[in-house]
Design a protein that fits this description.
246 residues, alpha/beta, Rossmann fold, four-stranded antiparallel beta sheet, 10 helices, 12 strands, 38% helix, 29% strand, globular, binds adenosine-5'-triphosphate, binds magnesium ion
Length: 246
């Protein structure tokens, strides 16, 4: 179980304190699929990075399976079964796709068959990719799918995916949602997926709308989707006025 208790995160900018996350408390039970959605700049990625340990909260506490991980490093959290796929994945010159999957899996030597299984889940063919370097020669969609495959290879207890749909074509997206559905129905991991996609939102046990650094709404997809569709303009009064005037 993941518990966030009164998490806040602020930064100092030009003599001002900017509140990015404001007193967020949240519990995610084991094997649930929770989707964070909401307007750009609302705080979703920051929240995910705080869970992974890439960002340290200014206040609050994070418990994973009852253990306080707030001050643990990324590596320590990874060893406890937490994983995170970046919104914009990093590239690793000199590391092949096979190396990346092998490192992620923790096996000394990952078989080609196993690599193929992980790559197939994100719609990639192992023959074309295993020996490619995870460098700038890969397209945005390819690097995103390879990173998702590496998270699947990690077999983590908590998988956090940050906009897995970004840059991914429709065919691969369909394969990816099937993969999420499968992991969820097997009950093999807890998943937090940050997404703007209706198809992914509809898979969730719970949808949480993050906006302006707070949890604005939460509920089932049926409860939340209609709200999102009618509340698409966010908080800009000028823009709202202009669009409603059309
Ligand atoms: N270190 C920082 N310094 C200043 N501002 C920051 C910092 N980190 C995040 N922010 C701001 O905090 C807000 C939340 O950012 P975050 O990346 O969490 O949003 P998001 O909900 O993931 O948005 P998106 O849907 O565009 O990915 C943004 O306005 C961002 O510019
Ligand atoms: Mg983000």
């Amino acid at each position: 179980m993941l518990e966030l208790k009164h998490i806040s995160y602020s930064v100092r900018e030009a003599d001002e304190t900017l509140g990015i996350l404001k007193d967020i408390s949240l519990t995610v039970d084991d094997h649930k699929l929770v989707v964070f959605t909401g307007p750009n700049g609302g705080g979703k990625t920051t929240l995910a990075k705080i869970i992974m340990g890439l960002v340290t909260p200014t206040e609050g506490q994070i418990l994973w399976n009852g253990q306080d991980v707030t001050h643990m490093t990324i590596t320590e959290r990874a060893k406890l079964g937490i994983s995170y796929g970046f919104q914009q994945p990093p590239r690793f010159k000199g590391i092949t796709v096979r190396d990346l999957l092998t490192i992620a899996s923790g096996d000394e030597k990952l078989s080609k068959d196993k690599c193929c299984q992980y790559l197939t889940k994100v719609g990639l063919c192992a023959n074309d990719y295993l020996d490619r370097e995870v460098d700038v020669s890969l397209s945005g969609g390819e690097v995103k799918r390879i990173e998702i495959a590496s998270i699947l290879a990690r077999n983590a207890d908590l998988m956090i995916f940050d906009e897995p749909e970004a840059g991914i074509d429709l065919w691969s997206f369909a394969r990816l949602t099937e993969t999420f559905e499968q992991i969820h129905s097997q009950g093999s991991a807890t998943m937090i997926i940050i997404s703007h996609q209706e198809r992914i939102i509809s898979l969730a046990d719970e949808v949480i709308v993050v906006g302006d650094g707070t949890l604005r709404h939460r509920g089932t997809p049926k409860e939340i989707l209609p709200r999102i569709l009618t509340d698409t303009l966010g908080g800009c009064p000028v823009l709202n006025k202009e669009v409603h005037a059309l």
